[in-house]
Amino acid sequence: MDIRQALHSDHFKTLDTQGLRDKMLVTKIMVPGQLSLTYSHVDRIIVGGAVPTDSPLTLSGGKELGVDYFLERREMGVINIGAPGRITVDGETVELGTHHGLYIPKESREVSFESLDATKPARFYINSTPAHVRYQLRHIRPQDASPTSLGDPETGNVRTINKYLHTDVLDTCQLSMGLTQLEPGSMWNTMPCHTHERRMEVYFYFDLSEDDVVFHLCGKPQETRHIVVANEQAVIHPSWSIHCGFGTRRYTFIWGMCGENLTYDDMDFIASKELR
């Protein structure tokens, strides 16, 4: 498990391009035949991916968590962006099609990931956060998500925000997750940009070709920087940082948040004319 320390806003200002990428960008997420995880000290979120091929991939505890099993004191959200697969939680198996999600509660002892066809593997994107209550295992199909359509073609940000782990859909301790799809011709996400001091956020970008990237904005509103993000990479944001991006082509991204509350619209918008 890769370990990332938290990034202070004063330290952020001293970093060059590679330093910024090393601290905030996660590039190793979807690796065939592997379970790849990154542990961030920012609200102790874990970000990762599971791409099972010839055999199932299984979660395990370890020194990094100091527990007997992975979800002893954690909850987890999973969204499949690949071919159909299945996740088995303490003997209960759930089949997940493309863009299906699964909430896995605290105290789930045995969790394994499997593809229905090893030649066309599932690609399970994972967020996990500390938890204090055990809720229910829950399969979230795309039609079960809570959708919100926003944006304008003139500003290039027509999108549908599909809320999977959200109070409109199910109960969690602190983890929120959703999948945002941009319409053809739209490249901006989350504009106007914002901060939410009460919660951190991770953006995971996918549905990009090898030749396309997203220029992802971060930093304080009056001192912004950018990170060039490729397909199936994620950016970890501390709560003080803005987060928005512009792609060379339309794309899809999964957002995950944790922190003080589960209020999706608890955010402080920044007018574009105020950005520097």
From TrEMBL:
Please give the Gene Ontology molecular function terms for this protein: 4-deoxy-L-threo-5-hexosulose-uronate ketol-isomerase activity; zinc ion binding
Key word Zinc present in the record? yes
Q: Does the keyword Metal-binding apply?
A: yes
According to its UniProt entry, the protein's GO biological process terms are: D-galacturonate catabolic process; D-glucuronate catabolic process; pectin catabolic process
Sorted alphabetically, which Pfam families does this protein's record hold?
Answer: KduI
Q: Which InterPro entries match?
A: KduI (IPR007045), KduI/IolB_isomerase (IPR021120), KduI_N (IPR027449), RmlC-like_jellyroll (IPR014710), RmlC_Cupin_sf (IPR011051)
Q: Which UniProt keywords apply?
A: Isomerase, Metal-binding, Zinc
Cofactor(s) needed by this chain: Zn(2+)
Q: In which pathway does it act?
A: Glycan metabolism; pectin degradation; 2-dehydro-3-deoxy-D-gluconate from pectin: step 4/5
Residues annotated as binding Zn(2+) are: H194, H196, E201, H243
Q: Which family does it belong to?
A: Belongs to the KduI family.
The record's annotation in PANTHER family points to: 4-DEOXY-L-THREO-5-HEXOSULOSE-URONATE KETOL-ISOMERASE
Describe the function of this protein.
Catalyzes the isomerization of 5-dehydro-4-deoxy-D-glucuronate to 3-deoxy-D-glycero-2,5-hexodiulosonate.
NCBIfam families (alphabetical): PRK00924.1 (NF002091)
Protein name per its UniProtKB record: 4-deoxy-L-threo-5-hexosulose-uronate ketol-isomerase
Q: Which organism is it from?
A: Vreelandella titanicae
- The record's gene field reads kduI
